[in-house]
Specification:
Distance between the termini: 87 Å
Helix content: 40-55%
CATH class of the largest domain: Alpha Beta
Number of helices: 12
Structural class: alpha+beta
CATH architecture of the largest domain: 2-Layer Sandwich
Radius of gyration: 44 Å
Order of helices and strands: HHHHHEEEEHEEHHEHEEHEEHEEH
CATH topology of the largest domain: Heat Shock Protein 90
Number of strands: 13
Number of domains: 3
Strand content: 15-25%
Largest sheet: 6 strands, mixed
Shape: elongated
CATH superfamily of the largest domain: Histidine kinase-like ATPase, C-terminal domain
Length: 520
């Protein structure tokens, strides 16, 4: 037995027990102790009954106290006849006082119940608001909200289904296990305009299969709406003997549905804003890419076309030296295009998070020497000072070669012929890194541009770049490659007066046995 019937039975038992105790106490006081009139004891029973059962309990207890005292303690006994007119006055006063005291006690109890219900409602709404305010996503916190509603709204089971209509609703959270009992009848909360309380309306849905509704309870449904859209429903099973949800429980379910609806509407708006931002950035990226590479593609293609046309023209007689120069120009421009395409592909892999370094232990001096030897022709018109002497590093040799190539190529591109270059290494005290520095004696870059040099498609404004403006990709690729190896990059003013790029590479962990063997 649950709900109103159980509460009525408990109230009846309390009233009966209070009157019985009051009767025994009155009999003891008047018969054993000789108290002439102990009828006031019944007032205690009336107050207890009013507190337990409300106004009706106080009135019933007051009338019952009047009748019990009249029949058991007023002469003649065991009848409702009163021989002494003074006893009439006592009994009437007892009845009046009992009813008034009972009503006052009931009012105070009702106010206390209302205050307690409001406190419970406020606490429940605070829990719902707090969960939604700190949510990583609305869908992730629906199970916690379902548990709160099941506990605070006196429901045996609560589940939340999301979807724009009944046919597409899918359960996103459920406090119970197993299949949900079907029913052809469910109760829907109807919102009313203004401050009018919402109403529960029974709905018959012949499309649903009838099931164990008498056992599991009657399904209650509250629509989740927000921002002019329907997002789903809160479903709850309430036992039939529990009655309809009271005002506090109804307000809690309605407020929770409203807050969930607003949160889902915010999620939708955030997703739309993010999609719009991604589309905007994608358009900007495409525009920047086209703007960056268009000139750098046209220049080498024009050179290749001119050199190839010269070689193919039968009317032009070229010496062996001119032929080699044309072939070298074609090879040089093809190499440049290959490097440009490689950088763009690497940048796309970096942006997609698909770059994976295969790290191993190497001598940094050997890797740097290999790269400088490969770039000897490109660096021929620039004096290069090399000072690399450091512990072994744990890097991907392909990544480091490409990163160092891009840094050197950047130095060649933005410095005039004959500019001094320096490549050196240094250990960082207290840090597990070796710093490889590439610096030049060129014009350098403004201080405010240094933090942005490694941003994709960023080019220093106003800098003299010669025939090629650069794509703004090379240093962005350098950062991606070095960070993929567990390192870091930074740009600063060079001691030579130009630009210095620092590549911090992870030091290799040498096993203790090998270190001791080398020391010995």
């Amino acid at each position: 037995m649950r709900g109103p019937r159980r509460r009525q039975l408990i109230a009846a038992l309390v009233i009966t027990a209070a009157l019985a105790v009051a009767t025994l106490a009155t009999a003891f006081l008047e018969d054993r102790l000789g108290v002439p009139n102990a009828s006031a004891i019944y007032l205690v029973a009336v107050v207890v009954s009013a507190i337990a059962a409300g106004t009706w309990g106080g009135v019933v207890a007051g009338i019952a106290a009047f009748l019990l005292y009249d029949s058991l303690f007023v002469q003649p006994l065991y009848t409702l006849t009163i021989s002494d007119p003074g006893e009439w006055l006592n009994l009437v006063v007892l009845l009046f006082v009992a009813i008034v005291v009972g009503q006052l006690a009931a009012i105070m109890r009702a106010r206390a119940d209302v205050a307690e219900a409001r406190e419970r409602e406020a606490r429940s709404l605070f829990q719902v608001s707090r969960v939604l305010a700190t949510r990583p996503s609305t869908a992730a916190v629906l199970p916690a909200l379902a548990d709160t509603l099941a506990r605070e709204a006196t429901m045996s089971r609560v589940w939340m289904a999301l979807g724009p209509d009944d046919a597409r609703e899918r359960v996103a959270a459920d406090t119970g296990k197993g299949p949900r009992p079907p029913s052809t009848i469910h109760v829907v909360l109807r919102r009313m305009p203004g401050d009018t309380p919402a109403q529960w309306l029974r709905v018959h849905d012949p499309s649903r299969r009838s099931g164990t509704r008498d056992v599991a309870g009657l399904p209650h449904r509250v629509r989740i709406e927000g921002g002019g859209a329907t997002f789903g429903s809160i479903w709850a099973l309430r036992p039939r003997d529990a009655g309809e949800p009271d005002r506090t429980e109804t307000r809690l379910l309605a407020a929770a549905a409203d807050q969930i609806g607003q949160a889902l509407a915010q999620d939708r708006l955030a997703a739309e804003a993010q999609a719009a931002e991604i589309a905007r950035q994608s358009d900007e990226l495409k525009s920047a890419l086209l703007q960056s590479v268009s000139h750098d593609l046209r220049t080498p293609l024009a050179t290749i076309r001119a050199a190839a046309g010269t070689l193919r023209d039968p009317d032009v007689v070229l010496s062996r030296t001119d032929q080699l120069e044309s072939a070298e120009a074609i090879e040089r421009e093809v190499e440049y295009l290959n490097r440009l395409v490689t950088n763009l592909l690497d940048l796309s892999r970096i942006e997609a998070g698909a770059l994976r370094a295969e790290r191993d232990v190497f001598e940094l001096e050997d890797l740097v020497a290999r790269t400088l030897d490969r770039l000897r022709s490109r660096l021929a018109d620039r004096p290069v000072e090399v000072g690399v002497d450091s512990p072994p590093v744990e890097v991907d040799p392909v990544f480091l070669d490409e990163a160092l190539t891009n840094v050197l190529d950047n130095a060649v591109k933005y410095t005039p012929a004959g500019t001094r270059l320096r490549v050196r290494s240094s250990e960082l005290p207290g840090e597990p890194f070796v710093r490889l520095t590439v610096e030049d004696a060129g014009p350098g870059a403004p201080d405010d541009a240094l933090p942005r040099l490694f941003d994709k498609f960023y080019r220093v404004p106003g800098a003299d770049r010669g025939s090629r403006s650069g794509t703004g990709v090379g240093l962005a690729v350098v950062r991606g490659l070095v960070e993929a190896m567990g390192g870091r990059v930074a740009a600063r003013r060079s001691e030579l007066g130009g630009l210095a790029v620092d590549l911090d590479l992870p030091v290799a962990a040498i096993p203790a046995a090998i270190a001791l063997g080398e020391a010995g």
